[in-house]
Amino acid sequence: MKNRFTIPKVKHYPLESTKDWYVWFRFNGGNPIRIKTGLNKIQDYNERLEEATALAEVLKEKLENGWIPNAANIYKSSIEKLTLYSALDFALEKKKSQLAHKSFLDYKCTCRFVKVYAKKMKFDRMYVNSCERFHIKKIFDKLQLDRNWTAKNYNKHLGYIKSLFSELVEWELISSNPVRDIRTQKEEKTESNIPLTDEEHKIVFDFLKERNYNFYVYCSFIYHCGIRPYELTQIKCKYINLEENLISLPAEITKNDSDGFVSILGNLKDLEPV
């Protein structure tokens, strides 16, 4: 059966209306397929109209040459009216499989903050493909003010949202990441970021060795191996290879849910719990 389609047409509005432009057509009697392809990023009316007209001609030529709009085209049409709220939920769900449980909870917390403040600022029903840097910046500035976030808090949550919007780009719900160019804030260095000197390190470990030898052994493993405290508590004898000086870390105990190895360094093999 020969495919039937209508001639692609440009749907346009005055720029001050803020309504999105698109080129639309019907294929085999189905619902209208709408394609924007970055039209609404063009701020000049005549330039946008010229670009939209050219897009309509290209689509018409493709249809006449036998092009069949696939599910992706229909999918793009259906997501044009996806709200910021729904888009964040979508991105979080897609991101879930890539994250450890704790990291997922961190993302979920940030997502909840943004959704609450998006609603307060009347951005919650905004279509995600209309969301711009300005909107996210406004939300984060208000969040920082109300919740008394430090620069470190601000940057952490901004990083999570930036990652979620990258997921939306990956799934082609948006063409570019509006959060990408929001600057991080300068973080103040704290005393906790200053490493111990060799002399201080010796004083601390000598103290631990005298007061609590088993805790000294525990800290020595973390210091020499770079192993995470939780992972160290989950190690079993079968994970340790003394001949090759290696400790295997199965995926179920690691933060990133993948198998790993750490080397047994320093004087660790000489330490015996009491």
Quick description:
It comes from Elizabethkingia argenteiflava. The chain is mainly alpha-helical and 274 residues long.
Overview features:
single chain, 274 residues, mainly alpha, 3 domains, three-stranded antiparallel β-sheet, 7% strand, elongated, coiled coil, Core-binding (CB) domain-containing protein, DNA recombination, DNA binding
Give a written overview of the molecule:
The protein has 9 helices and 6 strands. The chain is mainly alpha-helical. It folds into 3 domains: 9-79, no CATH class; 84-170; 195-270, no CATH class. The chain has a 3-stranded antiparallel β-sheet. The longest helix has 20 residues, at 45-64. The N and C termini lie far apart (83 Å). The model has no long low-confidence stretch (mean pLDDT 85). This is Core-binding (CB) domain-containing protein. Residues 35-66 form a coiled coil. It comes from Elizabethkingia argenteiflava. GO terms for molecular function: DNA binding. Keywords: Coiled coil, DNA recombination, DNA-binding.
